[in-house]
């Protein structure tokens, strides 16, 4: 009888060890799966992350430009944009994106190209007629109420608070721009209040008026100068 009890105890111990091993392995698999699910996404993997990375890149470029060519207001502007950069990084973390990933807007390099080709365009009647045609065709629609500018530009947000406004590297303070999101036909007309690294960069309030839920980048936008 004592031998049977001894063997029974050994079997029980072996079963307990085996169960603990299986449980530990399962926990390891679950932990590995959890860690994999939490891996931050890059701008190439998510539209949200791309929009935040673009906004971060534009603000960092603005800060670099202000430091390279400072004036009496540069220190205040830099302090403001550094706060915006910190806010964008918090949004990157909250959205599961790579924190600190910066992507300079691909459209920021384009303003110099139209400037170089402007003289030939003004001399060619066919090209000068084309901008007026879109304005006449959709006369009563969301777009076409002003001079279309920055063709092909994407639009993202600066991360700044306050009333709806915009910043631009092409238009002076006081210029009024109308931005239409072609993906949802929403539009907003805002005044340029500061300088940025892209054709038009909307602050938080303005971007909320035209954004699609969960997106921080407008790929299909019409930008018009209306004042």
From TrEMBL:
Keywords: Signal. The keyword Signal applies. Residues 102-135 have a biased composition (Low complexity). InterPro entries: RlpA-like_sf. Residues 1-36 form the signal peptide. Residues 95-171 are annotated as: Disordered. Residues 145-157 have a biased composition (Polar residues). This is Secreted protein. It comes from Streptomyces olindensis. The lineage of its organism: Bacteria, Bacillati, Actinomycetota, Actinomycetes, Kitasatosporales.
């Amino acid at each position: 009888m004592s031998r049977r009890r001894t063997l029974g105890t050994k079997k029980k111990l072996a079963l307990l060890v085996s169960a603990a091993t299986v449980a530990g392995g399962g926990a390891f698999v679950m932990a590995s799966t959890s860690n994999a699910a939490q891996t931050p996404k890059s701008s190439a993997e998510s539209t949200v992350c791309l929009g935040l990375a673009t906004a971060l890149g534009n603000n960092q470029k603005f800060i670099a430009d202000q430091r390279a060519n400072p004036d009496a207001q540069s220190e205040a502007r830099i302090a403001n944009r550094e706060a915006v950069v910190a806010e964008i990084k918090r949004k990157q973390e909250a959205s599961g994106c790579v924190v600190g990933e910066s992507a300079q807007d691909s459209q920021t390099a384009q303003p110099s190209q139209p400037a170089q080709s402007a003289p030939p365009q003004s001399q060619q009647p066919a090209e000068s007629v084309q901008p007026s045609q879109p304005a006449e065709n959709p006369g009563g629609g969301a777009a076409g109420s002003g001079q279309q500018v920055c063709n092909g530009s994407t639009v993202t947000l600066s991360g700044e608070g306050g009333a709806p406004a915009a910043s631009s590297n092409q238009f002076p303070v006081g210029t009024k721009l109308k931005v239409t999101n072609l993906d949802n036909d929403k539009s907003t007309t805002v005044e340029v209040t500061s300088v940025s690294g892209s054709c038009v960069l909307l602050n938080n309030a303005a971007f909320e008026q035209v954004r699609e839920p969960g997106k921080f980048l407008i790929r299909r936008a019409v930008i018009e100068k209306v004042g």
